Amino acid sequence: CELDVMQILWDLGPEMNQPEIKEELERRKSRVYGRTTIATWMTRLKNAGFVSSVAHGRSEERRVGKECRS
Protein backbone atom coordinates (compact mmCIF):
# COMPACT_ATOMS: atom_id res chain seq x y z
CA CYS A 1 0.00 0.00 0.00
CA GLU A 2 2.93 2.34 0.58
CA LEU A 3 3.81 1.81 -3.07
CA ASP A 4 0.36 3.10 -4.01
CA VAL A 5 1.03 6.25 -1.99
CA MET A 6 4.42 6.72 -3.67
CA GLN A 7 2.82 6.28 -7.10
CA ILE A 8 0.35 9.06 -6.29
CA LEU A 9 3.16 11.36 -5.14
CA TRP A 10 5.18 10.59 -8.28
CA ASP A 11 2.17 11.12 -10.54
CA LEU A 12 0.62 14.19 -8.94
CA GLY A 13 3.49 15.85 -7.10
CA PRO A 14 5.00 15.77 -3.63
CA GLU A 15 3.13 18.88 -2.48
CA MET A 16 -0.03 16.84 -1.82
CA ASN A 17 -1.26 16.72 1.76
CA GLN A 18 -2.62 13.62 3.50
CA PRO A 19 -6.33 14.34 2.83
CA GLU A 20 -5.54 14.80 -0.88
CA ILE A 21 -3.54 11.57 -0.94
CA LYS A 22 -6.40 9.76 0.82
CA GLU A 23 -8.94 11.09 -1.69
CA GLU A 24 -6.83 10.10 -4.69
CA LEU A 25 -6.06 6.65 -3.26
CA GLU A 26 -9.75 6.03 -2.65
CA ARG A 27 -10.53 7.12 -6.21
CA ARG A 28 -7.89 4.82 -7.69
CA LYS A 29 -8.66 1.79 -5.52
CA SER A 30 -12.46 2.23 -5.23
CA ARG A 31 -12.43 1.73 -1.48
CA VAL A 32 -12.42 3.84 1.68
CA TYR A 33 -9.32 4.27 3.85
CA GLY A 34 -9.11 5.67 7.36
CA ARG A 35 -7.28 8.93 7.96
CA THR A 36 -4.94 7.19 10.40
CA THR A 37 -4.16 4.48 7.83
CA ILE A 38 -2.78 7.08 5.43
CA ALA A 39 -0.86 8.74 8.28
CA THR A 40 0.70 5.38 9.20
CA TRP A 41 1.80 4.72 5.62
CA MET A 42 3.26 8.23 5.35
CA THR A 43 5.17 7.73 8.61
CA ARG A 44 6.58 4.43 7.35
CA LEU A 45 7.69 6.06 4.09
CA LYS A 46 9.25 8.94 6.01
CA ASN A 47 11.09 6.59 8.39
CA ALA A 48 12.39 4.59 5.42
CA GLY A 49 13.76 7.76 3.81
CA PHE A 50 11.46 7.73 0.78
CA VAL A 51 9.51 10.85 1.79
CA SER A 52 10.43 13.87 3.86
CA SER A 53 8.17 16.63 5.08
CA VAL A 54 8.39 20.09 6.56
CA ALA A 55 5.58 21.40 8.72
CA HIS A 56 3.94 24.67 7.65
CA GLY A 57 1.32 25.41 10.28
CA ARG A 58 -1.26 22.64 9.94
CA SER A 59 0.06 21.34 6.63
CA GLU A 60 3.29 19.75 5.44
CA GLU A 61 5.51 20.19 2.40
CA ARG A 62 6.85 16.87 1.08
CA ARG A 63 9.87 15.81 -0.90
CA VAL A 64 10.02 12.49 -2.68
CA GLY A 65 13.00 10.49 -3.86
CA LYS A 66 16.73 10.37 -3.25
CA GLU A 67 17.06 14.06 -2.44
CA CYS A 68 15.25 13.50 0.86
CA ARG A 69 17.75 10.88 2.06
CA SER A 70 20.51 13.34 3.00
Description:
With 70 residues, this protein is of the alpha+beta class. It is built from 3 helices and 2 strands. It has a two-stranded antiparallel sheet with strand order 1-2. A hairpin with a 2-residue loop joins β1 and β2. The C terminus is likely disordered.
What features would you highlight for this structure?
two-stranded antiparallel sheet; alpha+beta; 17% strand; single chain; 70 residues; disordered C terminus
Average pLDDT number: 82
Form type: globular
Instruction: Find the count of extended strands (DSSP E, 2+ residues).
Output: 2
Secondary-structure-derived class: alpha+beta
Question: Biggest sheet, open or closed, and with what strands and sense?
Answer: 2 strands, antiparallel
* Rg from alpha-carbon coordinates: 11 Å
- Percentage of β-strand residues: 15-25%
Distance between the termini: 25 Å
Give the low-pLDDT segments.
66-70
Write the layout of secondary structure elements.
Layout (H helix, E strand, L loop, with lengths): L1 H11 L5 H12 L5 H13 L3 E6 L2 E6 L6
Antiparallel strand pairs: 1-2
Helix pairs in contact: 2-3
What's this model, at a glance?
51% of the residues lie in helices and 17% in strands. It is an alpha+beta fold and 70 residues long.
